[in-house]
Specification:
mainly alpha, 4 helices, 80% helix
Length: 90
């Protein structure tokens, strides 16, 4: 498991950095082709890194569901995600 941790955390940090910067750029309409591509592929790296992080920290993750504020935040995030699948608008 230690070998997983040695690469999962750096991948998650790198992916978050790329997605954060390119996401802010996109928000302010400073878009480049490379920025868009990096943003999309960094998303996949983020999914992998976070997935491994969850596997390595499963018990602490489950403990968050016992905390009302944390459970509310995670529930709100889940509802927002579900709303993205609704056909709102043209």
């Amino acid at each position: 498991m230690k070998s997983l941790r040695s690469w999962a955390t750096p991948i998650t940090i790198a992916a978050f950095t790329i997605m954060g910067v390119t996401g802010v750029m996109m928000f302010f309409k400073v878009e480049t082709t490379l920025g868009k591509v990096l943003h999309e592929y960094a998303g996949w790296l983020m999914v992998i890194g976070v997935g491994v992080h969850l596997i390595l920290n499963w018990r602490p993750f489950l403990a968050y569901f016992k905390r009302p504020v944390a459970a509310t935040i995670m529930g709100a995030g889940t509802l927002l995600l579900a709303a993205t699948f609704l056909p709102l608008g043209p």
